[in-house]
Write a structure and sequence with these properties.
This protein is an alpha+beta fold. The protein is built from 11 helices and 13 strands. The N and C termini lie far apart (about 95 Å).
Amino acid sequence: MNLPARPSRALRRRSPLAGLPRPLQIAIVTAAALAASTAAVAAIEQLAHASYAAPVYLLAVLAVGSLYGTMPAVVTSVASFLLYDYLFVQPLYTFTISSPDEWLNLLLLLVVSVVVGRLVALLARRAEEAAEQAREAQALFDVSTALAGGRTVAEVAEVVLARLAEATEMDRAWLALGPSPTDERTAADTAPGEPLPVPTRHVVLQRGPGGEPNRWVHTHLPPVGDPRRRGPGRGTTVHRVKVEVGSEQLGSIWALRAHGQPDPDRVETWILAAAAEQLAQAVVRDRMAQESTNAEIVRRSEALKTALLDSVSHDLRTPLATIRAAAGSLLDPSVHWSREDQEATLRTIDSQADRMNRLVRNLLDMSRIEGGALRPELEAHDLDEALEGPIQLARAWGRKQIDVDLPRDLPAVLVDEVYLGQIVLNLLENATRYGGNRIRIGGFARADGMVEVLIEDDGAGVPTSALPRLFEKFYRVPGAQPSRSAMGIGLTVVAGLALAMGGDVEARPSELGGLAVAVALRAAPRPAVDEADG
């Protein structure tokens, strides 16, 4: 059925004649207007002794024309002409007119009434069209603003549906996404949590081809939505508007209205159709954005894998080449080695093997951190004893001065000794590679029950903007001296191991001028003191 132009549903609902057939409404309003005008004419001519009060009937013509249009206004004009002739023109109670002046007056009344009725009807129709256009524009603006303001359809669908339900005077609206009504799943609802209804009647908006008007068509559909969330819904009509792009169906807008209420009028239909088109474009936009994100994730993953393989292969080849060269020299019978040279070569082999061991351990730790497989064995340890081994190993590298300044009254820390050693070795190796000539290790007890270990150097430091990103995997500080032996996971492992033990890490500028990394560790509970022993 094509959608005729008619007053808005809000106006019809407020009218006391709402629910009556339109012809009956026109008849009642016309009869009432003519009766009131006749009473007014009688009062004016008989009580005020006016000779000609026929123009009062123009008020009836104005009222009917503004409410119902041109044809009812013309009928009212003719009825006014006949009533005045029958009731107030001599001879009374006949349609005979004896005076030519009366003929002229009545004909003028008829012509003026018809013209006035026509003009009033046109003005009323234009005013109604302007109101409808404003209503359409406002609803579409609200929908467009909501869709533009959100990153995804899921974020704004509820706001869009609430605006649609208000603009189209629906009792409820929901958006379901899927290739068919049976496969759709609710994405947003103006009544979230309430079961979906089993309505009495289904109507679907059929899009007209070419520029033909849209129309509502009664159809039979299977119950919509998840069967576990369906409610009774009897006595209601559900209206479905397809959300589609071309021939691809993406979902539907469903709107609920009490059974017996008319289908959406032209304005409401246009609003629903326009909103469905915008939602379809937004769904496609979200899908393309997700595909683009997935492609970018794959691209970055491949880039990270390539960088990791390049770095690992280089890191493994370098110490292996050194070890093979040193071992080959030791095995060469033509080379005569002094005892000191043999010891130096063996130390080189040992340091390079230790370097390979740290590399492999970092890779394994990184894998466990990302897989959530770290299981630290926490025990109470004195901090100076737990740090002694990693510090001695770093001093054996022989490249930097390492000063240790740990207060004697520091409480014990609750740590995994292996994890803590790996943290300190990674930080000392980072400070050795990028720092100056001096490394300082300090610590103090914090008021929040944590013990902070601070490892700092006197190097060039790190830009303030780069500090929050130092613990990201594969991150390199912009402008830093490139290091083929640095994969960019050492500090990431530090952060992961510290977090696994219930601690935390923070990078900040050092008082020595370089970089300082603070590792917060949990203080071990103090043992209870036996009063008998005290």
